[in-house]
């Protein structure tokens, strides 16, 4: 038996470390160790803001928990997918999901920049809406690749918004469209395509010890992956945190989750969901209404955060908030 001293001079008995797993969303190929350090650094910033500066060293040095970044990016970035746009590999299912995602994003942007304001941003969003209407108008009859071309028109137009162009993660509309298509590829369970989602969930659960406490921090598409993976997981989950989650996008994601009807995974002890009003990927604060509680009554507890800038859909921006980081570090304490 060993003792570890945390901030404030407190001595606690150190048993087997809890597990902290970060689950990422869409994007290009990642370096698991670099991402792990970045997410931990952002979490440390939030822990300080929460008044728990004495726990930062224990967190970042690995004394408080065994921290793992569950990297599945290679499973969604195969065959040179870093460049170009999605094309003939998209089936009808993928196209419906992508259309729905973009429609939800444009709807959120319209709320932020109403057409009647007449601003440049509002005009750009109006153009994106026009292209989106064309995207949904039966492009199948116009040949292979037509949907992909129209899709890039929408994403290229959206990237004319200064906030997205300056701070988002995409160099151009093709990259934007390609990475959005990862959501559809994960959710597609038609034939052999189901193996992608299965492989991703296996990667996330790989190496976890069901006998030790687990805290899961998931972001964006990672919240969808976590939802399904935690329904398969047999160990206790002290806390599940969802950041910028599209889980409540009804016609796009919610109705395609497995298992159905949607419910909080049974082994989850607490579920905290955070959303930013400026995060256009988020399905707004509806998780608790649209996803049923577990048999123990656990359901999503949703709270807003406020980040600077138009593009707030990054995990690190969320983790830097005290209200996000505080419960995470508390859940890791013995």
TrEMBL record:
InterPro entries: AB_hydrolase_fold. It comes from the Bacteria. This is Alpha/beta hydrolase. It comes from Streptomyces spongiae.
